[in-house]
Amino acid sequence: MPKDGTDPADAYGASSVANALRTLVYLREREPARLTEVSDYLGVARSTAHRLLSTLRGHGFVEQEPGTRRYRLGPVLLGLARRTVDERTLVRVARPHLERLRDESGETANLLVLDGPDVHFVDGVDGTQPLRVAPRTGDRLPAYGTAGGKALLARLPPDAVRLRYASGLARLTPATLPGLADLEAELARARERGFTLNIDESVADVHAVGAAVYDAYGAGVGALTISAPSTRMGAARAVALAPLVQRAADAVTRDLA
Question: Start and end of every HTH iclR-type domain (predicted)?
């Protein structure tokens, strides 16, 4: 058997899976822990332990303490250990905020949740304008083509986003983001400014702005959006409406706590 503790006959990677699970149990009992401590505990080379921890970190199962080289359990694993916000509760809590958002903006407001590579529109209210975008309740779209979907993807570790779109991004319109590198850049901008835009990316001549809703643990559980025809909501107006969406999303987050 190699010095790193792996078995060359282990075609299905069971040894690696076992070491990953042992690492998570070890961190639960000893966190934070250094690379050398994990390596010694597993009985593998430091390079092997480093690859293992890097993979777990890329998927959000572990994270490094800021400013140190010590590792601790990450947000994805912690999220699996707690009760998540169920969709019915999210819709009930968000509904009055959707209606207020519609009244303040005059535009259609939607509530979306992430479902694998897609978003599911779970609620929405009609705008007050004669010419408006209809709510999309019940529809599913690739998350990267929607403002709300991008707001939720921005909360995920980069590797988790790449896994969702391992085959690349299908073009929904000529304005859809062309590739993963473009999506990653867009998500980085979203993390900086706290909102996302959809400018003709899922439906031509429809623009939207979105912001994420969080649970008590800081995990993204949904997103609110305002959508309107491009003739009335250009990119500049979408940015101007972003604070309304952010305030509404923050209000839902508070009510879920």
Answer: 14-75
pTM value is: 0.72
d(CA 161, CA 188): 12
Backbone angles phi, psi at 36, to 5 degrees: -65, -35
Residues spanned by the domain of 249: 87-256
Q: Give the ranges where the chain is alpha helix by DSSP (H).
A: 14-30, 35-42, 46-58, 75-80, 87-105, 147-153, 158-164, 180-193, 235-256
Comparing CA positions, the residue from 204, 218, 187, 224 lying closest to residue 104 is 224
239, two tokens: 């940015």
> 210 with 230: CB under 8 angstroms?
no
Cis omega (within 30 of 0) for bond into 2: no
Q: Quick one: which of 227, 221, 213, 220 has its CA closest to 146?
A: 227
| 246 lies in the same domain as 142 | yes
pLDDT digits (tens, 9 = 90+) for 106-142: 999 999 999 989 999 999 999 999 999 999 999 999 9
Q: Are residues 132 and 61 in the same domain?
A: no
Q: Answer yes or no: do 64 and 130 share one domain.
A: no
Whether 63 and 134 share a structural domain:
no
| Statement: residue 3 has pLDDT above 80 | no
User: Which H helix or E strand runs over 206?
Assistant: strand 206-214
**Torsion 172-174-177-179 (CA) sign:** positive
Type of residue found at 239: V
